[in-house]
Amino acid sequence: QDDLIAAYSEDSVQKAVEKLQDKFRKNRDLPRAKYTRMLAEALLAPQRKILPRWGFEPPPKGVMQMHQAFTPYDDDEDVQLKITILNGLIGLDMAWLQES
């Protein structure tokens, strides 16, 4: 999780996420589910670097493998905190929708 937090915090990733969010702010008719699909494309580059480092396949399969690997730790406070941080960095918390 720490590697993903670092990667998703990089300027290039944040700019890509912000660009995607702007697209959704400007067109409120776009379904939120489409944000998730488009976000997956924006996160491919950092995920391709990090997931194999930890024994997971490249995305998208590696993302699912990672989620499954963390399932036993769903009650761990540290894991949950990092999930909250990750979701905030990539906009899955949808807080950016309320900002506009």
Keywords:
globular, 100 residues, single chain, 7 helices, mainly alpha, 71% helix
Describe this entry's structure for a reader:
The protein is mostly helical and 100 residues long. It has helices at 2-9, 11-26, 32-42, 44-50, 61-70, 77-90, 95-99. It starts with a helix and ends with a helix.
Query: What would the average pLDDT be, to the nearest integer?
Result: 94
The helix-and-strand class reads mainly alpha
Q: How many angstroms does the end-to-end distance come to? A: 29 Å
Counting DSSP H or I runs of 4 or more residues, the number of helices is 7
Principal-axes geometry comes out as: globular
Q: What oligomeric state do the depicted chains represent?
A: single chain
Q: What is the string of SSEs from the N terminus onward?
A: HHHHHHH
Strand fraction:
under 5%
Report the count of strand segments. Answer: 0
Major pleated sheet: none
Query: Could you estimate the helical fraction of the residues in percent?
Result: over 70%
Question: What's the alpha carbon Rg, rounded to whole Å?
Answer: 14 Å
Which residues form runs of ≥5 with pLDDT under 50?
A: none
Explain the layout of strands and helices.
Elements: H1 2-9, H2 11-26, H3 32-42, H4 44-50, H5 61-70, H6 77-90, H7 95-99
Helix pairs in contact: 1-6, 2-3
